[in-house]
Amino acid sequence: MLESFSDYLQYQKRSSKHTLTAYMTDLAQFEEFYEKLCLEDGLRLEEITLDKVTLQDVRCWVISLVEQKEDGTKLNNKSVNRKLSALKAFYNFLEKKGVIEKNPVNKMKRLKISKNLPLFVVENGMEKLLEEVPFEDGFEGVRDKLIIELLYGTGIRLSELLGLKISDINLHKQTINVLGKRNKERIIPIHAVLFDFLKNYLQLKGIVEGMTSDDYLITTASGEQGYPMLIWRIVRKMLDQVSTIERRSPHVLRHTFATHLLDNGADLNAIKDLLGHSTLASTQVYTHNSVEKLKKVFEKAHPKA
Q1: In this structure, how many other beta carbons lie within 10 angstroms of the beta carbon of residue 37?
Q2: Do 278 and 286 contact (CB within 8 A), yes or no?
Q3: Could you say which of 165, 181, 186, 236 is catalytic?
Q4: Catalytic residue at 286?
Q5: 251 has catalytic annotation
Q6: Which of 254, 255, 260, 272 is catalytic?
Q7: 203 & 238 share domain
Q8: Does any domain span residue 206?
Q9: φ and ψ at 176, to 5 degrees?
Q10: Which of 35, 152, 176, 205 is most exposed by smallest CB count within 10 Å?
Q11: Same-domain status, 135 and 229
Q12: Is residue 25 part of a domain?
């Protein structure tokens, strides 16, 4: 059953590798828990199948997830909800296939999550980083600055950045073609500064490694495709110089891109399309940052505040 579900995610839903790995890991963990639960109840191993799972079994699993472990760690509610999503998707699949009559996860309520505002770098911090902070000389320095320029200038995700190829850059139209979640493509315009920087980088890259249009845009000095930890290290190193926010990651630059656009009057629907969100609800989280900014302005400026 799990193998069929994996094929369904990969070939019909066209889920990303990250989603596929996460879902199958979560389901394998549940299967292990369920088997142990059934064995403790006296069932034989050959009698234990996932199509016999009940709502009570799911509840027992959730309780085990939120309980504090011996080492003092425990899963947060967001992680538990992600595991429940994987389980619900699996049993929806079995229901559609006629393997079960109803999904045992449907009546399981998601755990409450406290809403944290997206972290972002203030505008003068980004200005300082891109205009004053020195980057190393040579190919790697130019590449590192391009990484910051692209993440902040387009709002693309880390995985989307690493997947960019030379052929995705249209210098004539000044756009980049991005392959996002569920293989959805979107076209993002690039501003004048990023356009000039991309041109210089591509010229340098061509000299360094004799590029072709099928080559990845972001590479190591030896021409290998960039990898997540490389981007994390670069972003962390550069943001350390201009910001003290708790988390200094590639995704923070995506939050910064969206927040700065909204603060400067961009339409929420346009930001939604640029970010590749499927619904406006995902984008509306950035309005909270802008409201907080308005509150501070109000408190400083209004005579009755």
Answers
A1: 17
A2: no
A3: 181
A4: yes
A5: yes
A6: 254
A7: yes
A8: yes
A9: -125, 145
A10: 35
A11: yes
A12: yes
Structure tokens at 201: 């980088």
Does 254 participate in catalysis according to the annotation? yes
- Among 83, 143, 157, 272, the one annotated catalytic: 157
Residue type, 232: W
Q: Please give the single-letter amino acid code of residue 136.
A: E
- 233 is a catalytic site residue: no
Count, residues in the chain: 305
**pLDDT value of position 293:** 63
Could you list the residue range(s) of the whole structural domain that residue 188 is in? 123-301
Instruction: Retrieve residue 193's tokens.
Output: 């500064």
d(CA 177, CA 167): 9
Catalytic residue among 88, 128, 251, 288: 251
300 is annotated as an active-site residue: no
Residue 260 tokens, joined: 């700065």
Closest among 145, 128, 152, 180 to 256, alpha carbons compared: 152
Taking the complete model, does pTM exceed 0.70, yes or no? no
Residues 147 and 292 both lie in one domain:
yes
91 catalytic per annotation = no
12-63: pLDDT as tens digits: 888 888 889 999 999 999 999 988 988 888 878 777 888 888 899 999 999 8
